[in-house]
Amino acid sequence: MSPEFIDNFSRREMLKSAFFGAGAAAFAELLGVGGAAGGTGVLGSPHFAPRAKRVIYLLQTGGPSQLETFDYKPILNKRRGEPLPDSVRRGQRLTGMSGNQSLLPVVGSPYKFHQYGESRAWVSELLPRTAGVVDELCIIKTMYTEAINHDPAITFFCTGAEQAGRPSMGAWLAYGLGSANANLPAFVVLCTNKAADQPLYARLWGTGFLPSEFQGVQFLAGKDPVLYLNNPGGISRDARRRQLDALDKLQQNQFNKTGDGEILSRMAQAEMAFRMQMSVPEVTDLSAEPEEVFKLYGDDSRKPGTYAYHCLLARRLAERGVRFIQLLHPGWDHHDHLPSGIPGLCRETDQGSAALIIDLKRRGLLDDTLVVWGGEFGRTNYSQGKLTDNDFGRDHHPRCFSIWMAGGGAKRGVSHGETDEYGYNIQDIKNEGVHVHDLHATMLHLLGVDHEKLIYRYQGRDFRLTDVAGKVIKNLVA
Questions:
Q1: Distance (Å, rounded) from C-alpha 132 to C-alpha 121?
Q2: Which of 156, 188, 274, 362 has its CA 20 to 30 A from that of 109?
């Protein structure tokens, strides 16, 4: 070993590259590890038999109102305009947007609710297609979080921490379990092409301190789904291959000098991009899909960048072995004008979400694909600002809100937990509450991963997606 190598390759960097890079080619054969570009990931194999092989996460950003979707509270209509009782609020904190109101007038949903399916679950008239697949859903009415504002709340759901800088869930899975398709990323991100009330930061699908090869790859609408993927004019595929081969030799030489595992991560990304030049055009070409499929997903499924299009694309990515597919659909932040705003959001998402469930099931993919739908928190049962005869808004509410799961080993046709009659608190938070860390632990459990054992050592501490908390909610598991 040369003196120059010893000078540049510290013990910390050697251990980081050797044991925690998971994609470093120099150690992959030794460890029996595959990276984001195919293989089994740093775990080698799941800790126990998985129920799910992949996840499709339908993240509705902005905070959908549970009171207009899944949590039916008729008393709010009976008590419309009355102040929120102190016995219900219990002195809990409010945001600065409604905390200074002299009155917090309760307001019920203007939309009708009905019970559907054999499960007799309550679903709003705004979601008729979702109501049609309700017996496939595990509706969680008792989600809760400490985060009361958008940025920390959505960061919490995506990364398991309210502060920026931690790896996203998809990155953890790519690192731990790898991908079943060497020609596509293990983690793909799809953002609806529309104006967003709240920004969708790339760090929501970043790797934090994990090697950069595990970050989510965003697919965009248009002729170039992945930026800078295609070769420029005059550069052939053979020429690109020779260029990468030459670059690999230079990078390997640099790695031998410095021991910086990020060098090999960047090369892994370059090699993935080369393979994606062939795989991405194929997976994003929907022309071979039969007319019946477009009818199932709705007319928007023909339009790149829409939610319905992304739901259909998510199915195509899932059947090709992509480990984690995250859809982000913004616009649910209804501080005012909720009655005129939320119906449009439901129309944009209802058919695509339900179609995805139907399509996965008939293709035999739902049993091992976990689908999750939900936002970063819920909405208050009182009106933010002035309550009028036909208008109101709802503020952020982290104390209780609704999400759903389907497939992948989640219980079918159940509604987990209950909120109080005002929809403000969880009735039995100890036994029925589902914290963000609990949701992550349960999702990992369905993927065959013990959430306490998927770890990465960074700056002298072991980190994991669920930090130092989280428990598997067995009542959500079939």
A1: 11
A2: 156
Region 42-225+288-476: CATH code: 3.40.720
CB atoms within 10 A of CB 83: 14
What global pTM score does this model have? 0.91
φ/ψ of residue 200, rounded to 5: -105, 95
> How many angstroms separate the Cα of 199 from the Cα of each of 67, 411, 420?
24, 33, 33
Rounded to a whole number of angstroms, the CA Rg of the chain reads: 23
3 state DSSP class of 431 = helix
Q: pLDDT, tens digit, for every residue of 25-78?
A: 333 332 333 445 456 799 999 999 999 999 999 999 999 999 999 999 999 999
Angle at 52 between CA 50 and CA 54, to 5 degrees: 125
Closest CA to 63 of 138, 136, 152, 172: 152
Going from N- to C-terminal start, the domains of the chain cover: 1-33+230-283, 42-225+288-476
How far apart are alpha carbons 172 and 210 in whole angstroms?
8
Spatial distance between the Cα atoms of 93 and 396, rounded to a whole number of angstroms: 11
Beta strands in 178-247 (DSSP E): 187-191, 217-219
Q: What is the per-residue pLDDT across 119-149, written as a single tens digit (0 to 9) for each?
A: 999 999 999 999 999 999 999 999 999 999 9
Q: Rounded to an integer, what distance in angstroms lies between the CA atom of residue 142 and that of residue 121? A: 15
